[in-house]
Write a structure and sequence with these properties.
Layout lengths: L2 E5 L2 E3 L5 E8 L6 E8 L6 E6 L6 E3 L7 E6 L4 E6 L8 E9 L14 E2 L3 E5 L2
Parallel strand pairs: 2-11
Antiparallel strand pairs: 1-3, 3-8, 4-5, 4-9, 5-6, 7-8, 9-10, 9-11
Length: 126
Amino acid sequence: QLQLVESGGGLVQPGGSLRLSCAASGFTLDRYAIGWFRQAPGKEREGVSCISRYGYIIEYEDSAKGRFTISRDNAKNTVYLQMNSLKPEDTAVYYCAAVGGSSRYCSRVESDLRSWGQGTQVTVSS
């Protein structure tokens, strides 16, 4: 059974950094593109970034460009989201999700993703 577990969230001051991890079990990660999503209180879940099976395709939501970096280590069955220059508006629960597809495909559209983790809380506050 395909399972994803997020970790690395926490409380950080504005301008700080966090690295989120999305660890996969029950399947070989290189069969799936991975997306990172977030949901702030009272808001809809939004796609932050995605990465294709071997990293050929990477996308970022506009507010993440230049601050967040997505990467993957298929040998470790893990995808990462490095978040720098964090802002209070980055506060949300962050989720990773998987979808199968070609090696040149990834998606930040929630309905495209098939398997979701439980989420990890990121709070940016002084």
